[in-house]
Every structure is written in C-alpha cells, then in structure tokens.
Amino acid sequence: MQESQIAVVTGGAGFIGSHMTDRLLQAGYAVRVIDNLVGGRVSNLAHHARNPLLSLEECDICDLQPDSSIFKDVRYVFHFAGIGDIVPSIEQPIEYMATNVQGTVRTLEAARHGGRSTLQRFVYAASSSCYGLAATPTREDYPIQPQYPYALSKYQGEQAVLHWGQVYDLPVNSMRIFNAYGPRVRTTGAYGAVFGVFFRQKLAGKPYTVVGDGTQSRDFIYVTDVVEAFYMAAQSPHVGEIYNVGADNPQSILYLVELLGGNVNSGDVIFIPKRPGEPDCTWANAGKIIHQLGWQPKVTFETGVQTMLKDIENWRDAPLWDPDSIAKATATWFQHMDKK
Ligand SMILES: NC(=O)c1ccc[n+]([C@@H]2O[C@H](COP(=O)([O-])OP(=O)(O)OC[C@H]3O[C@@H](n4cnc5c(N)ncnc54)[C@H](O)[C@@H]3O)[C@@H](O)[C@H]2O)c1
Fold first, then answer.
1. Residue 250 to residue 137: CA distance in whole angstroms
2. 150 is catalytic
3. Confidence of residue 338 (pLDDT cuts 50, 70, 90)
4. CATH for 188
5. Are 40 and 114 members of one domain?
6. Which of 9, 28, 178, 237 could form a disulfide bond with 128, CB atoms 3.0-4.6 angstroms apart?
C-alpha cells in the first residue's frame, strides 16, 4: 500500500485547525497536529481518536527547532496556531508578537528544513484585521492599517511568510480570513466573538448585548468554506499569493439577533457603546480567490447559524456577559484606542 502524504496542521486542536484536520484526514493525508492547547481542546479531535493517520504533538510553536522531527518529509503545512482577541492583545503585546510573529518564523524554519525535498505548500492563516477601517468591499491590495496589536502581529506573521517565499523559495500562500464561524468556535476566554456572547445569552434567556446600533455588518464565513479555501490554496499552482477568504456578503448584527430568535422591539436587546477602531462593515472582495482558485463559499449564513444552533448546549459553560462585565473587560480598549 502507498504511504500517506504528510500534512502538518499547527493549531489543529483549535476551531478552524480541527476542521482543516477533518478535511485532510478525509482526503487520506497523515496529519500531524501541533498545539499547546491554550485555546484548543483535545475534544475537538476526539472523533478521530482511533485514526492512526492522526497524531497530536502537544508543544508550543515558539519552541520549535529547525530540525523538528514533526516536519520531516512534510508535504503541506497549514499554520493556524496563534492567539486571537483584541483586548488581551492590547494588554499583552509581547505575548502576541512572540506567538504570532516569532512563532510563525519558527514554524517556517521547521517547514523549510523538514520539508526540504517534499514541501509543496505552506498556507498561513492571516487576518482581515490588517485592513483596519478600510474601504469596502476590500481588495487584497488595499492599504494596511492595523488598529491593535493582534492585527499587527498577524500582519507581521504574513510578512514573514511572504519573505520566506522570497528569500528561501518556500512555496507559500497567505489567506486573510474575515469572520469565521461554525461548530467548535471557542466558547471560553476573553470577551470577543459575537457568536459566543450571544449563544450564552440566549441559553440564559438574557438580552443580547448589541454594540452600537447593530447595523454594523461582518463578512461571516462558515468554517468548512474557510477550510476548503486553504485546501485549494495548497493544491493550486499559484504561490506567493494573498487571498481574501470572505463570503463577499456582509450580515448585520441585528440580522444575527433575528436568526437567533431575538426581537429588537420586545426587549431582547441591550445596546452598548460602539467601540473605537472597529469597522462599521467588513466586506471581502473575494474576486481573486474565486477567479484564481475556483473557490466559492457554499454555506449560506442562515444555514450556518442553524447548524451552529444545534450545538448550543456547548455554550452552557461559556462566560455570560452583560453590559457591566463587558464595560470592565473592554476598559483598556477604550483607554488606548479612543484617541480621535
Ligand atoms: N476565527 C477567525 O475568524 C479568524 C479570522 C482571521 C484569522 N484567524 C486566524 O486563524 C487561526 C485559527 O483561529 P481560530 O479561530 O481557529 O482560533 P483558535 O484559538 O480556536 O485556534 C488557535 C489554536 O492555536 C493554538 N495555539 C495558540 N498558541 C500556540 C502556540 N504558541 N503553540 C502551539 N499552538 C498554539 C491554540 O491552542 C488553538 O488550538 C489563528 O491564527 C487566527 O489568528 C482566525
């Protein structure tokens, strides 16, 4: 029997990384997951527990050495390991730069050495946050204006990835993800992603805390569509490219409330102050990825939200946010970003 080709997924126990692992195992790859489990969970991969093609290496990407055996003979590297969320990045910028920039450099070096004669593609999980308060729909060549350290760190990680492509001929691509959502999205940790906040509030029968007037919109993209974009970026002949990964179809926060069964006119919503540095609209111009890779998002927002609702019980242990706790959790945000 032919031996399976090897793919490394950093951050593979996390939200998007675990779905990438599903996709690669389904395609017959031997998958080596690297994760230090700061945000990820072993349970995200539990359904593969008996699959001999999967291995989980519990380690920190910042400790990777160029001769790491995990990367030996690797064909594809999908680099998702990193730390997210805005407020903690404002409070602990050193940690963010260390993990998201230097950790990426360490991953690149391990891929370069271990995959010396085998590496076909290194695909990086970049963030649309690099665009800051951008004109929409936003194209890949629009100005870069990170508004907080998380955005800066992800952008510098991307610069490192492209630099390794330029200097060492590493076959790289960078995927600027907009707002990914779907099953296994993180339920714990800092105040952040709107899904976690609203699902827990729905379970508790508490009002949804809507920022601003709720008409702001986000280009939500379902996780299996994100993963397919990464898979195609690994298989296609295009290298050294940056691609937006968004649905090109922004959805307002009030519409999300409606899909969750909330009614603005019946007291189901509490409005909380708009935050500086956050765009009113994120909206990917997805023309490049559609034309070059032939990718198309398949899951509509309505279907994606309904699918997530089936797992709502997973949010039972998530933090329950209210206007007071959110005000406290976001104090640093207002302190550092409200300058204009
Ligand atoms: N979710 C989104 O909407 C979105 C948007 C843009 C970019 N991204 C990027 O995609 C990647 C995955 O995001 P996600 O939403 O799945 O987040 P996640 O927190 O669920 O996954 C990140 C994973 O990386 C692991 N990790 C963190 N630091 C590590 C380290 N030092 N060493 C090894 N593993 C480490 C975590 O344990 C976790 O499993 C991140 O790099 C993120 O910046 C995500």
1. 9
2. yes
3. confident
4. 3.90.25.10
5. yes
6. 178
